[in-house]
Amino acid sequence: MPTFAQVNVGDALPAQDFPITRLNLVKYCGASGDFNYIHWSESFANEVGLPGVISHGMFTMAEAGRVVTDWIGDPGQLCEYSVRFTRPVAVPDDLVGTTISVSGTVAEKLDDNRVKVDLTATCKGETVLGRAYAIVRLP
Amino acid sequence: MPTFAQVNVGDALPAQDFPITRLNLVKYCGASGDFNYIHWSESFANEVGLPGVISHGMFTMAEAGRVVTDWIGDPGQLCEYSVRFTRPVAVPDDLVGTTISVSGTVAEKLDDNRVKVDLTATCKGETVLGRAYAIVRLP
Asked: Across the interface, do B94 and A43 touch by the CB < 8 Å criterion?
């Protein structure tokens, strides 16, 4: 875990790619209790104008958050986490699925050893989470 | 609940139809822990030569068993239940899904107030469970 003293505004967190497959979504349906058809039915998703079956926003958010929690090591030091779901993440019906690419940058050093991290999450080159940031406490 | 004395070989149990939808299967994936692709991925199911996404055999079996447990009232009096999964139950990707039709007949009166019930389960006119029977204990 980096210490508050070591960290500077502008520092990049280690970026990560996260595959998202239909299997993830079927599992997340059961784990979350959110069985909305848009997360598993191609025909329903198409009917309501989506580009296909899409990821649960909370699942995308959770995956993206790993860039922060892996950086700090201790998920218990994540104080705040906020995103806007700006674009659906379509997941094709194959074994590969899609991928979200997540990077983070130290945006601000706050009081009480807290640091604000801005996150960027893209899928096929397009931003899928807007105004995404986390506030963590460092030792 | 019928009593042992009231029941005769050849008696028909009240038949029932059970819809099976993709939503049922996605839920059963999470409930059972069986996330096999054949139960939710159209492309995978087609690739392995199935007529589409198919029901978990145990789910079909569980639904069919309701004809027996609804008849006796108390599921705790179901002593034995056995089926063979003889034909896959294909479930289309729409809100209607498919339907299994289940009927039962009293096949044998056994000792100790037990009764053997033979079950027939069909989907689109074809048998989907083979050698299906239950043994129940009646008052």
From this structure: yes
